Amino acid sequence: MKLRPLADRVLLKQEKAETKTASGIIIPETAQEKTQTATVEAVGPGTEKDKITVKVGDRVMYDKYAGTQVKVDGEDFLIVKNSDIIAVVEA
């Protein structure tokens, strides 16, 4: 199945949380902090008022409580508004 966001929505693939500390201690899943970084998988066309400011493949940071979780073909994604994206992470 393929998702195509509408209006000013962006489809994100969240990055996995760290499972080990720098010293090698394994962090249990219940204690892992959810990351707020993701890769843009698809973007909507935008609206006259809200232009899309990211493109597919960008690595971004988003608001902690933003978006709607969706599962497609067994993979987890997040659909957020363009305005919920707070930064583009550059290498």
From TrEMBL:
SMART domains: Cpn10. Belongs to the GroES chaperonin family. One of its GO terms (molecular function) is protein-folding chaperone binding. Together with the chaperonin GroEL, plays an essential role in assisting protein folding. The GroEL-GroES system forms a nano-cage that allows encapsulation of the non-native substrate proteins and provides a physical environment optimized to promote and accelerate protein folding. GroES binds to the apical surface of the GroEL ring, thereby capping the opening of the GroEL channel. Gene3D superfamilies: GroES chaperonin. It comes from Treponema saccharophilum DSM 2985. Keywords: Chaperone, Cytoplasm. This is Co-chaperonin GroES. One of its GO terms (cellular component) is cytoplasm. It holds the Pfam family Cpn10. Heptamer of 7 subunits arranged in a ring. Interacts with the chaperonin GroEL. Transmembrane segments: none annotated. InterPro entries: Chaperonin_GroES (IPR020818), Chaperonin_GroES_sf (IPR037124), Chaprnonin_Cpn10_CS (IPR018369), GroES-like_sf (IPR011032). The keyword Protease does not apply. The gene is groES. Its main location: cytoplasm. It comes from the Bacteria. It is found in: Cytoplasm.
